[in-house]
Model the fold of this input.
Amino acid sequence: MRFLGRWNSWLVWWLTGGPEGGAHVTDVTNASRTMLMDLDTLEWEESILRVLNIPRPMLPRIVPSSDKRLWGYTSKHGPLEHPVPVCAALGDQQAALVGQTCFEKGEAKNTYGTGCFLLMNTGSMRVRSTHGLITTLGYRIDSQDPVYCLEGSVAVAGALVQWLRDNLGIIATAPEVEDLARTVEDNGGIYFVPAFSGLFAPYWRADARGVIAGLTRFVNKGHLARAVLEASAFQTKDNR
Done:
C-alpha cells in the first residue's frame, strides 16, 4: 500500500496491524499540512485532487485528533505485550500546543528547536491572517468543533547555534553559546539574519539569504554568539 500523507498515517497503520487490517487514517492537523484538505469541511478537497491527479481512494480517512471511535488496537505482532487502543494523533507543533494546554482562545505557545514556531489558538473560527501567518488546524476532539490556529514559522533557531558550532567551530558544544554570549554586554552593533533556507513568516521569501550586518574590528566571538541568540528573539518578534 502506498501512503500519500504524513508519517502518522503510516505509523498508525502499522500499529493497528498493517497488512492485516491496519487503520489507514490521518488526523485533521496532519491532513491540513498536506494542503489537500478543505479547512472548513475537514475533508479532502476534490478540486485540488483533480488538478494534482491524486486518486481519492489512496488517501487516508481524516479523523479527529482524539477520537472516541477507536481506530484499532496495537497488533499482537508489534512491540507491546498487550493490545493498546489507538485513537489519537497530533501534528508536531499542534501537539506542543495541546501539551502546553493552550485550550482557550487567544492562548499561544512558542517552541524553540531546529526552527521556532509560534501558534495561537483562535477558537472555532478560522482566521485569515493579513500579516503573513499560516491558518491551520490546532486540534479536534471527537465530534466537537475544530479549533484553529494562526502560526508564525521561523526556519532557523537552534540550527543557528549548530551552525556556529559545526561550521565555524567557535563553540564545541551548543550550551557553550550562552556562556560565550555573556562575556559581552551587548551585541556590539551586529545583527544576524539567518535566512539559510530563505525567510519564513511573515516574509515568505525563498530567495532570501543569510546576513551578518554591522561588523567592525571591535566585534569578537562573544558578540557573534550574542547576535546568534538574539536572532531567535528578533524573528519571534516579527511573528507576534
About this structure: The longest strand covers residues 116-123. The helical segments are 7-15, 28-33, 46-52, 92-99, 158-166, 176-181, 221-238.
